[in-house]
Amino acid sequence: MMNQLKAELSFLRALMSVNLASAMEYRVSFISQVVGMLVNNGIYFVFWVIFFNQFGTVRGYNMDEIFLLFAIVTLGYGLGFMFAGNTRQYMAYLIAQGRLDYYLVFPRNLLLHVVCSKMTVSTVGDVVFGLIAYSFTGRFALVEIGLFLATAVLAAIIFVGYSVITGSLAFYMGNAQYASQQMTNAMLTFSLYPNTLFSGAARVMLYTVIPAAFVGAVPVDIVRFHDGRLLLLLVAAAIIIWLIAIFMFYYGLRRYESGSAINVNV
Amino acid sequence: MGQLRLTATKYGAITVTNLQNQLAYVWEALNRAVFIVLIMFVFVQLWTAVYQSQGVTEIAGLSLSATIWYLLIAETMELGKMRHDERISEEVKDGSVAYTLTRPYNYLAYHFFNGLGETAVKMLLVFLLGMPLVVYYAGWPTIQPQHLLPVLLIAGLAVLLDFFAFSIIGLLAFVTEDTFSFRLIYQKLVFILGGLMLPLDFLPAWLQPLARVLPFNLTTYAPAKLFVAFTWAQFWQILALQAIWLTVFGLVLWRQYRWASQRLAVNGG
Questions:
Q1: Tell me: the pLDDT tens digits for A147-162?
Q2: Cα–chain-centroid distance for residue B41?
Q3: Long-range contacts made by residues A203-209, C-beta under 8 angstroms, separation at least 24?
Q4: How, if at all, do strands B62-63 and B58-59 pair?
Q5: ipTM of the predicted structure?
Q6: Cα nearest neighbour of A41 on chain B
Q7: Would you kindly state where each structural domain of chain B is located, as residue ranges?
Q8: Any bridge partners for residue B62, and if so which?
Q9: What pTM did the predictor assign?
């Protein structure tokens, strides 16, 4: 069991090295995408600076909370899809096109191999942005930095888990690329706005169907209030989401049909 | 007259062909447009919270309902934009621009009329999908029927101005090969200075004059603001600014296109 785990970890390390080397092959394009993402995220900061400057605190949120929210969400999103970028609409495409065959023949854990065989280059920009954004929060106590990193990693795990769920929809509904993309975008969009804006059914949705609260609002509260119980809740949420993801993927795999296309991985 | 009719028929056919193309894959277009429901829901919550926290019925002369309708129109303009700069950039990079330039139509006019069909479908879908939610939260729009045509004129010129801007960006591929960063910077400037994320009227007082004279607000803020709070004074002011920036961008684009065409000829096409 331990030997198998070591083998899988070693394989994952090799996959990530190849992905990173491949991404950095074209340096100008790599830097351009990273800087582009920094600019993209930065403009939302400018919006919020203007917003809070004009309107003050809104529903308990001001600029300090927004710095922390952006730091956690962008770092989590970046870490998640930097290492496991072959989810969401990409996974849905593979399944719909019958291109899982390439992965099925390998003596490796199928789900891990599929999700970790692609790196989204721009997410490096998200990781850098997340760390820069955290520096604006002024929270430099060791326990706060520790909580920030822990919640960001959990957010990454949840992002990827949810993306496996949305990508696996292709097993059940054929062409699920757009649905998968929209659901993941929805999660990201909702997570970047203060949770306190939403109430009733919308608030319930953010803890269930589109678990954006677990990658934004909950981690923010954990870091703000040093809430250990909330941290355990977040761990539980990550486990539940991944259990659902694994079930949906492997149950859907029974319905999978091979395609006739030749799949070349470069 | 005959030549004019032939030209109109030629470019009209290009528009209609792409329009039919878009309608053939309407489900794909619908899927993309679903984003508007999500983002409008978020905006409604955000701005409702702002008006409640301020304890006012109007901010900078705009009611909550007007602000929500403003954001729908702004998003419709933004999501309906032609993204032909990527196509131009790809054609320059892979060299296919060499034979598309020799076809019996103007290269830029082709991209404009080709994109027009797609823009029309996208804008209509975004507006129709977003409207029920906006009507539910903000009620029906208060625009007067006699103001609709002027607003449509400004919106049409906004589309044209945006087309010029993206064409300039696309043709930069002759120089920089990768135009991604220019496109991104332009889009982000529209987010703030163009009034996409919040009306220019909500910007700090020191920033508003600058934002109003720059071209970004003329593609997004202008039609949206006139839709929710039409005044003839603002209409003529916006029309004049659009004319000025269309002339400036048009001249830049014309020079750039001529330089690019000659560069291709010099290199053997």
A1: 999 999 999 999 999 9
A2: 22
A3: none
A4: antiparallel
A5: 0.85
A6: B188
A7: 2-266
A8: B59
A9: 0.87
Contact B53 A46 (CB under 8 A): no
> For the range B20-24, what are the long-range contacts, defined as Cβ-Cβ under 8 Å and sequence gap of 24 or more?
B20/B117, B21/B117, B21/B118, B22/B117, B22/B118, B22/B121, B22/B122, B23/B121
Chain B positions touching chain A (beta carbons under 8 Å) = 28, 31-32, 34-35, 38-39, 41-42, 45-46, 49-50, 53-54, 178, 180-181, 184-185, 188, 191-192, 197-198, 202-204, 207
Token pair of B180, please? 């991604």
Give B208-228 pLDDT, tens digit per residue: 999 999 999 999 999 999 999
Contact indicator for B40, B71 with CB cutoff of 8 Å: yes
Neighbour-count burial for A105-133, b at 16+ CB within 10 Å, e otherwise: eeebbebbbbbbbbbbbbbbbbbbbbbbb
